Amino acid sequence: MGQNQKRFKPGQTKSFMQQVAELKASATVESLAEAGNFQISFQHLDREQGQSFGRWQETTKLSEAMETLRNYSARPLRSQLDGKKFTEYGDFPPDAKTKFAHPAQVPPDASWARIHVDGLHCLIGHLVENTFYLVFLDENHEFWISELKHT
Q: pTM for the complete prediction?
C-alpha cells in the first residue's frame, strides 16, 4: 500500500482522525454536559498525608499521573471502573489496612477509589457521579495495603 493511501476498516468511510476532528468540531457546551465524562476535582486534596505534587514531579510521576487522568477524561467515569487499574473500594479502609487517616474535608460516606499510575503509584480519591475527587498521592500503595505486592 502506498504511503499516501489511507487504510480503513471494512465498512469505514472515514479515518479515525477524521472522525475525532469532526467530533471536536461539532462539540458544544450542551453536548459536553450531556456526555457526562470523567472529571477531576482537587477540592478535597489532603496536603498532610501522602506525597506532594513537587515530590511526584521530582520522580517524573506527576506527568504520568496527568496523562493517566487525561486518558480517563474522554469517557464517563463509571464505564471505566475495571477493578484493576481503576477500582472503587466503597468505604475507607480499616485502620489495619491503611497508613492514612480519613481527612476531615471528605464526607464520611464518601465512596473511595484508586487509579493506578503504574504498579505502585496510585491516585486516591472518592467518587461523586462523574467526578473523581483527588485526595492523596500514594507512591507506595499504602492507602489500601494488600497481601499481594503491587496490587
A: 0.79
User: What confidence score (pLDDT) does residue 31 get?
Assistant: 76
Beta bridge partners of 131: 39, 128
pLDDT digits (tens, 9 = 90+) for 99-130: 999 999 999 999 999 999 998 999 999 999 99
Provide the pLDDT for residue 151: 45
Contacts of 148 (CB under 8 A, 6+ apart): none
H helical segments located in 15-130: 16-26, 29-35, 53-58, 61-72
Please report the beta strands in the chain, taking only residues with DSSP state E, as ranges in sequence order: 39-41, 86-90, 111-116, 122-128, 131-138
The count of other CB atoms within 10 Å of the CB of residue 13 is: 8
pLDDT, tens digit, 9 for 90 and up, residues 17-37:
676 666 667 778 787 777 889
Distance CA 44, CA 25 (A): 34
C-alpha distance from residue 37 to each of 26, 34, 43 (Å) = 16, 8, 18
12-16 own/partner pairs: CB under 8 Å, 24+ apart: none
Q: How far apart are CA 106 and CA 129, in angstroms?
A: 15
DSSP at 52: -
